[in-house]
Amino acid sequence: MKTKKLSVTFGATAAIGAFLVDQATKSLILAHVAPLSAGVPVFPGFNLVFLRNDGVTFGLLSGAPMWSLTALALAVCGWLVVALVRANSRMEALAYGMIIGGALGNVADRLRHGAVTDFLDVYAGSLHWPAFNMADVFVVCGAMAVLFSSSTGARQRRAE
Questions:
Q1: Which residue windows are transmembrane per the record (predicted)?
Q2: What pTM, to 2 d.p., does this model score?
Q3: Which domain holds residue 129?
Q4: Catalytic positions
Q5: Counting beta carbons within 10 angstroms of the beta carbon of residue 1, is it exposed (0 to 12), middle (13 to 18) or buried (19 or more)?
Q6: How many structural domains does the chain have?
Q7: pLDDT in tens, 65-90
Q8: CA 154 to centroid of chain Cα atoms
């Protein structure tokens, strides 16, 4: 039971950390909107920009009512909190925490600005990946960690 409590604490700490990093980076971007609106090259293949996305990933569901996307994100976070509490390892707890923190970071943006602030622009030549933010990075890394943890756990169970 003590290990389970440590995992939950670990996951909650990851969620808070992801949320804070996301909000801090978005605050920096909002303090420099004018120069970032045109894009600022950082190095070849990477720019800082200022964009607002009223949809979800890749602009999907753009134009949907803000409250519906917020409600959906909060419902998913509720489900992820249950998964976090049931996590069997610190890796799983970390993963769920990262996803929760990232999702809540984007929810905070929707509630404050009506849309999500995106600012990371990765490209190759003239092909640009849709702009994203640190919340998105945490969600994607958390999802990858869940998959990694699941596959590692499955291999360990087969070996037993």
A1: 63-84, 91-108, 128-148
A2: 0.89
A3: 2-159
A4: 118, 136
A5: exposed
A6: 1
A7: 888 889 999 999 999 999 999 998 99
A8: 26
